Amino acid sequence: MKPTLAQRAEFYSLRGIVRALGMLDWETACRVGGRLGVAGYRPLGIRKDVVEKQIAAAFPAMSPDEVRGIARASFEHLGRTAIETALLPGLGEKGVLDLVDTVEGWEHIERAIAGGGGMVVVAGHHGNWELLAAYIAARGVPFDVIVRGMANPLFDTYINDIRTSLGLTVVHDSEAVRRTPRALRSGRAVGFVADQGVLGLASTYVTFFGRPAKTPRGAAVFALRFNAPVLFVDALRQPNAKYRVIIEPVEITPTGDRETDVDAIVMRFTELLEKWVRFVPEQYFWQHRRWKRQPPDTPRELRDPTRSNDASDG
User: Fold this and answer.
1) Which ranges of the chain does DSSP label H, i.e. alpha helix?
2) Phi-psi region of 125 (alpha: psi -120 to 50; beta: other; left: phi over 0)
3) Each residue of 193-212: pLDDT tens digit?
4) What single DSSP character describes residue 243?
5) End-to-end Cα separation, the chain, in angstroms
């Protein structure tokens, strides 16, 4: 799709910022990225109400000041994450590995590799999911990542070029049905970021922070079809600006009912994501309306907190 004039302006503005920040040392550049993110919260107020309403709904015991504090920190985190991602290729493989100082559960990946088959890796928009994928690839794991196209085609090409330069194989979600079976059969890891409801994408409704949320089911479908282990992964930024990588197996208990089993897997990895979001809420992507699409019969008190009417997107 040919980019519009506005999309070109957005893209080249970002490229200019990244080029300027690339002349600074890593920590300074990322700190500036955090400040740019905070500016998105205030004074610009980009999706400020969406973020605050969702945090308040997820954490009803929080005071308004606590909600605003988490909201501001989430914008700072997002700004920093965006700049980190853009600058990752300049670090090289060793630099990517050096950004992680703690890894919990790597033995689960080693066990899956030793089994000779592929593995399904599931993450949410929490921590730094781009750094996480780059880290797994840098440790020698052949890794395909399933991605959705972005509205701005220039951004889309740019971020996918970054992913490729970091050793990842990029697979558009429209090609996932064809390419994922081949990858799993050849012993590759296939990664899904599975916490956004999308129109036209096979999904199920599971509970996230007590509210039904439309959640993609592709990762679970492929895991069951090819008897592949499912691993939930996360990368949490630490106070020292390094990362803590977490890898946890997602339990699969086949019942003989494929639909029930798929829903159970989706629920389990969503529960793991919620656990870590509760632990570090400021590192979640609250800017996305997580409860935008819900079942039509969702009770009023559990509906999308960002909506001002009673309608449901389904």
Assistant:
1) 5-21, 26-41, 48-58, 64-87, 92-98, 106-114, 129-138, 153-165, 176-185, 218-225, 258-279
2) beta
3) 999 877 767 899 999 999 99
4) E
5) 28
Average model confidence (pLDDT) across the chain: 95
Give residue 45's identity as a one-letter amino acid code.
G
Element (H, E) at 300: none
Give the 3-state secondary structure of residue 80: helix
Q: Tell me the per-residue pLDDT of 60-92, one tens digit each, with 9 for 90 and over.
A: 999 999 999 999 999 999 999 999 999 999 999
- How far from chain centre, in Å, is Cα 86? 16
pTM strictly above 0.70: yes
CA 21 to chain centre: 24
DSSP string, 121-180: EEE-SBS-HHHHHHHHHHTT--EEEEEPPPSSHHHHHHHHHHHHHTTPEEEEGGGHHHHH
